[in-house]
Amino acid sequence: MPKRTLVSRRFVPVLALALIGQASMPALAFADEAGRMEYMYSCSACHGETALGDGPVARYLNVPTPGLTRLSAENDGEFPLLEIIQVIDGRSGVGPHGTLMPVWGARYMASAVEDAGHFGAEVVVRGRILSIARYLESVQE
Description:
- The chain has 141 residues and is mostly helical.
- It has helices spanning 12-23, 27-42, 44-47, 81-89, 104-138.
- It has one domain (27-138).
- Helices cover 54% and strands 0% of the residues.
- The radius of gyration is 16 Å and the shape is globular.
């Protein structure tokens, strides 16, 4: 039986590029950019490029798409990181606004398992979701 590695060989170049990129810029700047790109790819169609709830798809939804820049203000000045992670992930039972929001935990998992294996995929999924949550924390009013 072949030995199962944590990360498939196809995923190694992606990790190598990430490490090279991280070595050439401060780790926080790298993480901020990753979160911004993840948000733009996965969230901006509905929530808008500026996270105000005005994405091009928002007008076609049956429920209002919330803006995401006042999450701290609506939580006594503290960003609700865990709650945001749970809503994005969707696997925790927390129902996002009307439950129409895609469950990104399951979607990310489906795409990551092939490249990283089941256990490696979980790390990838959590990282992607955390990067979005941290990006949202950075755009609070």
